[in-house]
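SAMPLE LOG
Freezer: B-3
Tube label: C17
Construct: single chain, 432 aa
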Amino acid sequence: MNIEKGVKMKKRFLKQNFLFFLFFLPILLVVFVIGMHSKELINTTIHLLSFLLLFIISVLLCTSLIFNKKNKKEKWSKKKKIIFIVFFSLEIVGSTTLLTLLYGPWDQFRDWLIPSAMTTMHHKYLATWFYSEEEIKYVLENNQVIEQKEPTNEELIEPEIIPPVVYENEFEEKIFKDKKEDEIYRIIPIEEKKFTGYLAVIYDPSRVSVTTTRFLDVRGQYVTEMASESKALLAINGGGFIDPNLNGAGGSPQGITIKNKKVITKYNYSISGGLIGLNEDNKLILGRMTVEEAQKKNIRDGVSFGPFLIVNGKKSFIKGNGGWGTAPRSAIGQRKDGIILLLVVDGRTLKYPGASMVDLTTILDNYGAMNAANLDGGTSSTIVLPEEEAKKYKKESELKNSCRKNYCYINNPIDSTGAHKTRPVASSIIVK
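STRUCTURE (predicted):
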């Protein structure tokens, strides 16, 4: 009897452990496949096999402790069987879907994930966990913005606004319809399938300038704070910033920064783009240049970032999706008549993931930009107005957590944790 009872207990133990091993098998498969593709998550095959062995032993030990009791019934109830089947089915579908998206025959997800992750400050692991360095390099090389190399032709910009009698298209109508003589700026809501945002139309380019954090090389400031201290009518975030410890301090503007003809920074700039500046004739100049060259071009205000999207009316060639993925974005452009376009779009939600470089270029081109460039994006992307003006675009209850010093952002920034807030930055583009 004792032998027979022992055999039954052994069978029950093996059956229960087999079912739980079966349950964890898809997870093991996912970990194995990811480990074979990336050295980031599991460094070597030996480590991978060791991990799998330890995982299996842990599962067996846990299930034996839970189920191998004398008073445990041998058969599972019908309810438990149904729950097991449902969860196991969901696990199979989920594991298969994940592996298909990551490594399946279609490249769209991979080509979106890698650039989106690699252009962030804190989430590069979303690419390096799943793909090797070679795969990441291959994708980035095949998805990039190939900028126009020619210098900005200042003669193409004629800062003299003459509202057209007949609008060329719906976008020109949005800029000029019912324009009042004393109208300084106009804000046009943007809503597309993948993102929402605002386009600020600044009729007088001489009102546009650059400001920087008061705590230069120490920490950044919120755009709302910089706008308040400058008594700006409107402001958006500006160029990139140096952040070696990835703590979001944002105290040192990237590349060359010029504020009211004073050179604030003159660091080397290695990524695409370069100086985005307004000269003394209020014309937007784009170019990779030294401080001395910028001074020769009479740049009065400028920040550094990129890529350049439109130069002299010619759109940059965008290979694949542009290599920047989709995210919240900011951009600046100038029309032939001198009007400055300041664009901010939101993202990082399931419904609205964000804009690509293709999207930014299309919007700015639609609104007539002769020259245009991408600005710092992600959590930095924000458009700010005085509180009373902000109430025209956002409900008072929605402004509760978006205001500082009587200035509020009217878009919906989302940081790396998923919280609906922006971050301090090193520079802003303001309208006074």
